[in-house]
Amino acid sequence: MNVKVAIAGGGPAGMVLGFLLARAGIEVAVLEKHADFLRDFRGDTIHPSTLDIIWELGLLDAFLALPHSEITQFSGIVNDKAYPFVDLRHVPTHCKFLAFMPQWDFLNFLAERGRRYPAFHLLMETEAIGTLEEGASVTGVRAVGPQGEIEIHAELTVGADGRHSTLRTAAQLPVTDFGAPIDVLWLRLPRETSDPGQVFGYIKNGRIFVMLMRDTYWQCAYVIPKGGFETIKARGLDAFRSGIAQQTPFVADRVGSLQSWDDVKLLTVQVDRLKKWYCDGLLFIGDAAHAMSPIGGVGINLAVQDAVAAANILYPALSAGTAPDLEAVQRRRTFPTVMTQNLQLVIQNTFMSRILRSADASGQPAKRPLFLEAFKYFPLLRRIPARLIGVGFRPEHVRTPAV
Q1: Which end of the chain is more exposed for a tag (fewer CB within 10 A), N or C?
Q2: Measured between alpha carbons, how far is residue 175 from residues 195, 248, 291, 326 in Å?
């Protein structure tokens, strides 16, 4: 198979880049190793900056017709006291809310729209296993599909295959690992119409429990010390369920829905970044270039912004048949990546780790959070985290044409 661009990974970064390039008439193959996009506990927050991209593509009405929920404000609950700290109603975007939509719906939406362009080739059940090379240049990707091993020759290969990127390992590019003192346990709890309608982070008794509202259930993130899952399992499932009930009493009658540890998924948190995102013929974007912490739920949106910036920068050279400036993509996206990761590191290495260290401190309540008190009494301050979460440090805009 011969294409202009081969993209390993059918996640948000790969699908958005593939869609934008195919829309501009650049022949592209996107490789997704699974048979479908249906996976539990993938990030599914669609932030205002990403909704702006969809609006610029003229697809917003169709996108928002899919089942989703919308949030404009949310709060933290510390020792059973509410502290509102984010208000998205004033962000400078077309949509002034955060949308919750299962990631498989988002990816299926892009796949359906992408297939309308003859230049878009989506290869499902096709996993990239290595690169094709001529001398020091990458000239495509080796993959395994339903019919066996295949070679996809391309002028440019893009690694968008996530934080455990096969292509990144093959390229042996140096990575800076910033570490993380936390891991996250993902789980679901049934939701009832009488439940609170906001997004809440519950902080109490040295525990952090985040609840994201879905239509019929809560998607929950239970923050634990790094490597602490085995200790929690050793205490037993009953103790785990009891801890959740103490943290969020309104779901105490539903923790029995966690029938085994199979209902609890471990997300090993890592924060890292490639020192160099490219080599001759090969570029990395999204989590393959920079693994993000789940703090703020911004990983998807950073990946989408990477894809939009890459399409804007790569398109002129690809359409003219000249070598694209891969370094320009890294230059464009380094600032927002570094700033976002630094902010995440400050939050997880100070605020969150301090709370977790107090978990066994004889049940003493956390100290009164003065900065959250400020958000409570000075509502204008809530626009600052809203801007950081909803828009980010360098929002991108679609510059590629539609053929």
Answers
A1: C
A2: 43, 39, 10, 18
pLDDT digit string, tens, across residues 147-183: 999 999 999 999 999 888 999 999 999 999 998 888 9
CA distance 59 to 109: 10
pTM over 0.90: yes
**53-59 CB contacts, 8 Å cutoff, 24+ apart:** 53/16, 53/304, 53/308, 53/396, 53/397, 53/398, 55/94, 55/95, 56/397, 56/398, 57/23, 57/398, 59/109, 59/113
Handedness of CA 389, 395, 400, 403 (dihedral sign): positive
CA distance 192 to 178: 40
Nearest to 391 by CA among 80, 97, 37: 97
Q: Is the dihedral of CA 10, 14, 15, 21 positive or negative?
A: negative
- Give CA–CA dist 328/311, Å, rounded: 11
pLDDT of residue 362: 46
Q: Angle formed by the axes of helices 12-23 and 299-320, to 10°?
A: 30
Token pair listed for 344 = 């995440």
Which amino acid, one-letter code, is at 170?
A: A
Coil, helix or strand at residue 403: coil
The answer to whether residue 364 scores a pLDDT higher than 70 is no
Q: How far apart are CA 383 and CA 403, in angstroms?
A: 38
Tokens 């059940």 label which residue? 125
3-class SS of residue 167: helix
DSSP state at residue 352? I
Contact present, 89 and 73 (Cβ < 8 Å) = yes
Phi/psi at 25 (5° precision): 90, 10
pLDDT in tens, 287-342: 999 999 888 888 899 999 999 999 999 999 999 999 999 999 999 999 999 999 99
Q: Percentage of the chain surpassing pLDDT 90?
A: 65
**What would the DSSP string read from start to end of 206-250?**
TEEEEEEE-SSEEEEEEEEETT-HHHHHHH-HHHHHHHHHHH-GG
Evaluate if residue 132 carries a pLDDT over 70: yes
Q: How far apart are CA 388 and CA 182, in angstroms?
A: 22
CA-based radius of gyration for the chain:
22
Token pair for 229 = 């899952």
Average pLDDT of the residues of the chain: 90
Residue 157 phi, psi dihedral angles, 5° rounding: -110, 135
